[in-house]
Specification:
The chain has helices at 82-97, 101-117, 166-176, 199-212, 224-232, 236-243, 257-264, 283-291, 302-309, 315-319, 340-349, 355-361, 364-369, 398-402, and strands at residues 4-5, 9-13, 16-20, 23-26, 28-33, 36-42, 50-51, 55-59, 61-66, 120-127, 152-159, 185-191, 216-220, 270-274, 296-300, 324-327, 387-391, 408-414, 417-421. It is of the alpha/beta class. The protein folds into two domains: 4-59 and 377-421, Urease, subunit C, domain 1; 61-369, Alpha-Beta Barrel (TIM Barrel), CATH 3.20.20. β14 (270-274), α8 (283-291) and β15 form a beta-alpha-beta unit. The longest helix is centred in the first third of the chain and has 17 residues, at 101-117.
């Protein structure tokens, strides 16, 4: 993947410009200088403008939650047995892949390329092992997982453990990792989930995130079996953990969803991932989400929720808390692709959101949830020129046209660089 730099001073015009979801400019145009938006106009554009014709220009899509390491999968893993059954299949897959670090690097690169082709300019990645960056030493034959043309990334380092060795192991892992120098590569921490992170480790990781001013992300309330494990220590999750040799003696201190929300709110920004069963996690859970909406966002992955639980997230109840709701694709382990527009369609087709509302979840809400709102999620004067150009044909409703399956991304621009496709008259 290579990046073509736009001329230092550029103007692009299209049939529709959507600088922020919900606002559509008929015949809108952007003036860019050194990769930054300096003017937004409507109507006749200067003669030097590149006219993109019957296309819609939107802020680059932001994928709030994904697992790029599974990007080589041709189809999602089976959802039989719900989340515990799916995790068992995932662990088996990871154990095979552990012997081939080059394959993991190639999968990550494939995921980045697919993301760019989908119009994604920023994403939140869960990393179960250190990602390679431009400065990293890689296996023979491998190249950096972050090529010159790649989305901006918030990389949450995932940590988990239930036994007494979990805390010292996490300390050692974090101490050994070196920060990346690339400014597109932003760090974060991900305590995996309530069923895989014991209380002492959770408190340590959140204290570290607060001290270092790092955003955090945790899978929370993604299965009804999660609450059962926390309440009684049994059920399908207990069987799974016993089978993996991960359930310690004595039993671990597991934290309920409401307590996790309070912990996550101690970080400068916290992302609650999935939340499919948060409304059933106790009366205090939604209240705490509302109380901390200034720091917390919820990232939902509708197609994954439908695969693993047979239902979509409780969008109305989550939205009633006032929290920002973002969209993620999870990853090819549970979704057919890495296109956030597919998640938008799932909500719109189910009557849970309008096209404009869904686009907001896949742009500025997602950027805010990742702590990347200054660089991503909207087209505004003084902000980087991160945008996607989508060919829709003639349309009077650009928000709906974006989600039509025939609409295609013809260009993805990040900071004034064409990372995918082309801009042509």
């Amino acid at each position: 993947m290579t990046a073509t730099v736009l001329p230092r001073r550029s103007i692009v015009r299209a049939r529709w410009l959507i600088p922020t979801a919900g606002t559509a400019l008929d015949g809108g145009w952007l003036r860019l200088v050194d990769g930054t938006v300096v003017e937004i106009g409507r109507g006749p554009a200067p003669r030097s403008a590149t006219d993109l014709g019957d296309a819609v220009v939107i802020p680059g899509l932001v994928n709030a939650h994904t697992h790029l390491e599974f990007s080589a999968l041709e189809r999602p893993l089976a959802g039989d047995g719900g989340l515990p059954g799916w995790i068992a299949r995932l662990v088996a897959l990871r154990r095979v892949a552990a012997d081939d670090p080059l394959a993991r690097e190639q999968a990550i690169r494939a995921g980045l390329a697919e993301s760019l082709a989908a119009g994604v300019t920023a994403l939140g990645e869960i990393a179960t092992a250190p990602h390679s960056g431009p400065d990293s030493e890689l296996p023979a034959g491998a190249s950096s997982a972050l090529p010159p043309a790649a989305p901006r990334m918030r990389v949450y380092r995932e940590l988990l453990g239930l036994g007494p060795a979990a805390l010292p192991r996490a300390r050692a892992i974090l101490a050994a990792e070196k920060p990346h120098r690339d400014p597109r590569w932003l760090p974060g921490i991900s305590p995996h989930a309530p069923y895989s992170v014991a209380g002492p480790l959770a408190h340590h990781l959140l204290a570290r995130a607060r001290r270092l001013r790092l955003p955090v992300a945790t899978h929370l309330a993604e299965s009804a079996d999660e609450a059962r494990l926390i309440a009684s220590g049994d059920g399908p999750f207990r069987a799974l953990l016993d089978g993996l040799g991960a359930w310690p003696v004595p039993a671990p201190d597991l934290l309920p969803a409401a307590e996790w929300l309070t912990l996550l709110a101690r970080a400068p920004r916290g992302l609650v991932i999935h939340a499919t069963f948060l409304a059933e996690a106790g009366p205090d859970a939604l209240d705490r989400l509302a109380r901390h909406r200034d720091r917390l966002a919820v990232a939902i992955c509708p197609r994954t929720a439908r695969l693993l639980s047979g239902r979509l997230p409780p969008l109305a109840r989550l939205g009633a808390t006032g929290v920002r709701i973002a969209l993620g694709t999870d990853g090819r382990g549970s979704a057919p692709d890495l296109d956030p527009r597919g998640e938008c369609r799932a909500l719109v087709d189910a009557g849970l959101a309008s096209p404009a509302e869904a686009l907001a979840m896949a742009t500025h809400h997602a950027a805010w949830g990742l702590g990347m709102e200054r660089s991503s999620g909207r087209l505004a004067i003084g902000h980087p020129a991160d945008l996607a150009v989508i060919a829709t044909g003639p349309t009077g409703d650009p928000h709906a046209a974006l989600l039509d399956t025939s609409a295609r991304v013809v260009a993805t621009v990040i900071g004034g660089r064409i990372a995918h496709g082309t801009l042509a008259d």
